[in-house]
Amino acid sequence: MSDQINPPQVQDHQPGRETEMHPKPQYMPRYPGSGRLKDKVAIVTGGDSGIGRAVAVLFAREGAEVALVYLEETEDAAITADAIKAEGKQALLLRGDVGDKTFCDNVVGQVIEQFGKLDVLVNNAAEQHPKKDVEEITPQQLRETFETNLFGYFYMAQAALPYLGEGSAIVNTTSVTAYRGSPELVDYASTKGAIVAFTRSLSGQLAEKGIRVNAVAPGPIWTPLIPATFDAEKVAEFGASQPLKRPGQPNEVAPSYLFLACEDASYITGQVLHPNGGEIING
Predict the structure, then answer these.
(1) Do the beta carbons of residue 222 and residue 238 sit within 8 Å?
(2) Residue 232 half-sphere exposure, CB side, CA atoms within 13 Å?
(3) 167: how many CB neighbours lie within 10 A of its CB?
(4) What count of Cα atoms within 13 Å lies in the side-chain half-sphere of residue 172?
(5) Could you report the per-residue pLDDT of 111-131, keeping only the tens digit for each?
(6) How far does the chain reach from its first CA to its final CA, in angstroms?
(7) 3-state secondary structure of 217
(8) Where is the composition biased (Polar residues) (predicted)?
(9) How confident is the model at residue 240 (pLDDT cuts 50, 70, 90)?
(10) Using CA atoms, how far apart are residues 177 and 133, in angstroms rounded to an integer?
(11) Among this protein's residues, is 267 annotated catalytic?
């Protein structure tokens, strides 16, 4: 097909495995570090692959120790951990479901035990399950999507806040679908819209404490979630409709998270950045 971007491919499990993708997403930072997160400690949920992996490795290059939270993708997580260690930083691997509040509490507890502090929380874990008809969305799917994509953000923020102080940052992953909708991802898009409201509301609550809360709304990015979500034809065409005529790579999105996490964004809170290949949206 004339607009094929990547080879057709599918995966039969969520949120997908980067080891099974071809070509592999580009995650390594594209420039030398400058110490923008020197001596910081960060948690990245969904940090094993995709955007989370690129963010974690970039944070390490900029000087942060990183805790990677992942669901079950052990091989992907190990590759990310090796990349962090290659940057001279520590990687703490924490496997579990962010939809479980007890697990989220334990994540933060282990980070404090390992590193003694916490400076940056990146809420990034997500799942999506396309359905052409809203009536096909089962109560179980609706519940699980909200538990991962929204409840997990609440739980992680609640667990982290006792350890965050002035100058700390929370960065949430929303999506372009929060702004333009997605007919086949009604429940997923709904969670992403809620994350925008969560970001704006929490930023106002925490401003007086000097804790900044922002978000990133990626467009079509080449991550394991794509072949784990769509059929082979859609995967092959993924990103072709954007003004830049291609999907973005994780390492093209990660700098948005770095900017919002570091002091470069010291006067920015309650905002959303839009690395989406040129799509103009409101908000």
Answers:
(1) yes
(2) 6
(3) 14
(4) 34
(5) 999 999 999 999 999 999 999
(6) 34
(7) coil
(8) 1-12
(9) confident
(10) 17
(11) no
Catalytic residue, candidates 27, 70, 179, 188: 188
Instruction: Break the chain into its structural domains and give their ranges.
Output: 37-273
Nearest to 56 by CA among 96, 35, 85, 17: 85
Residue pLDDT, tens place only, 179-238:
999 999 999 999 999 999 999 999 999 999 999 999 999 998 987 767 777 667 777 787
Around Cβ 21, how many Cβ atoms within 10 Å? 22
Q: What are phi and psi of 41, to 5 degrees?
A: -125, 130
Question: What token pair was written down for 176?
Answer: 């372009």
Tokens of 82: 């090796």
At the topology level of CATH, where does 37-273 sit? Rossmann fold (3.40.50)
Written as one letter, the residue type at 268 is I
Residue 52 has pLDDT above 90, yes or no: yes
pLDDT above 80 (res 161): yes
CB atoms within 10 A of CB 11: 17
CA 106, CA 159: separation in Å to the nearest integer? 8
Centroid of chain to Cα 47: 7
Joined tokens for residue 54: 């690129």
Whether the pTM exceeds 0.85: the reply is yes
Number of H helices and number of E strands within the chain?
A: 9, 7
Residue that is written with structure tokens 């949206």 in the block: 281
Residue 171 has pLDDT above 50, yes or no: yes
- Do the beta carbons of residue 132 and residue 182 sit within 8 Å? no
Q: By the 8 A CB rule, do 91 and 80 touch? A: yes
Residue 187 burial (C-beta neighbours within 10 Å; 0-12, 13-18, 19+)? buried
Identify the three-state secondary structure at position 171.
strand
